[in-house]
Amino acid sequence: MDTSVRTDTLESRRRLLALADGPGGLICAFRFGRGAPRRLNWADIQVPPPAASGEFTWMHLKSADGRIHDWLEHNQDIPEAARAFLAGRDSRPRLHVTDEGVHGLLVDLKMDAEAQDDEKGVLHFFMDGTRLITVRTRALRSTDRLRRLVEDGADYGCTLELLAALLQCLHEGFLERLEALTDEVDDIEASVLSDRQQADRSALSAVRRQLAEFRRHINPERNILGRLCTLGHAWADSEAQDRLVQVIDALHGLAGAIDALYERAKLLQEEIASQMAEQMNRNLMVLSILTALLMPGTLVSGIFGMNMADVPGLQWPGAFWLVLSLMLGLGVGMLLLLKKLKLF
Questions:
Q1: Per-residue pLDDT tens digits for 71-85
Q2: Nearest alpha carbon to residue 215 among 165, 261, 269, 163
Q3: Three-state secondary-structure class, residue 126
């Protein structure tokens, strides 16, 4: 039994050493706790900071790199359940709290260059008292925003405060996208009020699809994140938890704004449908009136157009103009009748 354990340990160390030169999937890594954040290379992050030093690290990784995937699966410093989760392919928001730490999944927006067909991306993370590990497949707005903040010198006191900053960046990304959708709905509303609804239906459908996607992920995400406010771990600083509560409250407000904009887009679509139905009714009314005006003349022309020998007027001079006058008179009479009945 001891030989088997020793063999597994040696195999794990061999795999980790094979990655010592640094995989391309290491997007960035920083160490916090002593002044300004310090950027780390792959060799630095293989040695975790002492638990009592107050230092902690943030590693941001790309799961598409096979060597990163291999490192996640065999790094014994990370709890087994968290390793399997970080290397997995879950796509719905979830949160798992254990004695060893917290791991979960956040839904975020992809970067503009990678959001051509689907804006939604996912971010796996693991957090304990000494590290925050985030793993993504495609470039995401929240982690990119947080990375730039850290590079500019933003400092954080613990991993929970760093996670709160990440959630704040996620909130700001969704808020920017929501403001853009609000502007788009404003333009569509002005167009609808001007009876220019031809291009508005497809635009509103696209807006509602995006808002429905946001609602489907933001609502469960903010609900599960509420559990972070009650962490009982020793490293869960109370001040950081207060900061986390503020961010989660902001996510609640964002969900309310998404719901309100969704309902507004829905009402605009109903207004467009009402305008189109009204326009169709007007067109049908015009066609009905034209049909009624032409009906007497059509009847007369049909009767005199019969190819029969005893049709009257075949040999009469001026019979054509007489019949034409009769048709015109019947049309005027029908017009007066429709006016009297107030049908138009």
A1: 888 787 888 888 888
A2: 261
A3: strand
Beta strands in the chain (DSSP E): 26-32, 38-39, 56-62, 94-97, 102-109, 120-127, 131-136
- Residue with structure tokens 């060597």? 67
Q: Which residue has the tokens 């009479």?
A: 333
Could you tell me the CATH number of the domain that includes residue 255?
Answer: 3.30.460.20
Tokens encoding 146: 């947080």
What pTM, to 2 d.p., does this model score?
A: 0.72
Helices 238-304 and 200-225 cross at an angle (nearest 10°) of 150
Residue 227 in domain: yes
* Domain region containing 28: 18-274
% of residues, the chain, pLDDT over 90: 10
Six-digit token string for 34: 């002593």
**Can you tell me the mean pLDDT for 183-212?**
77
Q: Are 135 and 123 in contact (CB under 8 A)?
A: yes
Is residue 108 packed enough to be buried (19+ CB in 10 Å), middle (13-18) or exposed (0-12)?
buried
Residue of 105 and 241 predicted with greater confidence: 105
**Residue 25 DSSP one-character state:** T
